[in-house]
Amino acid sequence: METKQNTYYIFNYGCQMNASDTEHYAGQLEELGYAPAEDFRKADVIVVNTCCVRESAEKKIAGKIGELKNIKIKNPDMVICVAGCMAQKDGEKLLKKHPQVDLLLGTAYVNDFKSILTEYLAERKGKYYTDLTIHQSEFEGKMVRQSSFSAWIPIMYGCNNFCTYCIVPYVRGRERSRAIENIVAEIEQAVEEGYKEFTLLGQNVNSYGKDFGEKNAFAKLLRRVNEIKGVERIRYMTSHPRDMNEEVIKAVAECEHVCENFHVPFQAGSNEILRRMNRGYSREKYLELIKMIRSYVPDAAITTDIIVGFPGETEQDFEDTLALVQEVGFDAAFTFIYSKRSGTPAAKMEEQVPLAVKKDRLNRLMEVQNLSSLHRNKELIGKTVEVLAEGPSKNPAVWTGRTRTNKLVLWPAESRIYNAGEKVLVKIDTAQTWLVKGKAVQDV
Ligand code: SAH
Ligand code: SF4
Ligand code: F3S
Predict the structure, then answer these.
(1) Which residue lies with its CA nearest to atom 3 of ligand 3?
(2) How many angstroms does the Cα of residue 327 sit away from the middle of ligand 1?
(3) pLDDT of 349-384, one tens digit each?
């Protein structure tokens, strides 16, 4: 008799760190013999990998967990596991609120998922695993990667910065770095499997290796990965402006495979707000850093994260943010409305900014940033850029890919069939706010 293959489905939310953890959950499930489910309603195991960085994320996820209640009633043998940052934050409370959840897996247990699930299946007794003191940082086992050519590589976990608005240090624990050889081994393995692009991940990659007591370890890591045969592109995120330094910028300038893209979140343009955010740099220092980046890597794309409506942000403070955006001319920015996270110092600060004011500031900021993105993209018109092909757009006759500076490029495939990860030269003729368009050079 044919036995039915067990299946899994993973809902992923949050940052690239979570995306990478999801690939590791999928890897462990496949090691246990599970296959991806086409329909989550019929899966044997569902993992909801959660984020709690802003209230909006939490609301969306709570809705999804609620939706699973009815599905579980129809399929009571199904295992529902809630993992990630919200599981870490809410712990037992979340289990009480959502009795359909069987397992709760905090952020320090990613490596242990396989054994935890096996144990659960033997006993069928719901449990939560939210101890943050288990600081395992070496990675083992299989990854089921989403992309066929671009791989997420975690290089460190946790964050020690305690920016006053941010929940991440509380749910991801203290910084711990992976050993360089463990990272290199994972990349070499992925190269063998055909991967070409590697994004080194951490909440603050520039403090990589500090826990080993090593100086400039991140710059050294970039240089080491650059040497690995078969690696075409190296990206990394996120950089903290306080810890980004000349050694790293030099490494980017000198390493052939490290992309000319700097993501340096400045969060706020006013020194008073930066101080209250506990960011550890001033507007002036940030501008010096941008100058240094441009002097070493003139064609670099520079992107950032910005928060509007931090407690006590006055109109003048906000205008300082707008002025900084105009002065730097970012290629793109992720802009957020400040979201109160209980347990963080900023949540207790007085002078919370009314929502209507926050929304108005966000709109004004986006207007300025969109013009800047368009302006930067227009500078590419007439230039030929190197693109790694990703896949067809909604229109199958038009392909998409990204430049080394991480800009989205669209071009007509004509009669050609591209492979994902293939290098294509595209001559840009059109610029929009979010993308550029052109023609493959062999077709020009
Ligand atoms: N470690 C990274 C990213 C952290 S989360 C860094 O330091 O840059 C990604 C972004 O979410 C942050 O850069 C910040 O802009 C935003 N963010 C974090 N907490 C927030 C909050 N409480 N409200 C609004 N945005 C927030
Ligand atoms: Fe949060 Fe700041 Fe750490 Fe980034 S550096 S994760 S914003 S505390
Ligand atoms: Fe969210 Fe956790 Fe990432 S809170 S942004 S998934 S580190």
Answers:
(1) 15
(2) 22
(3) 999 999 999 999 999 999 999 999 999 999 999 999
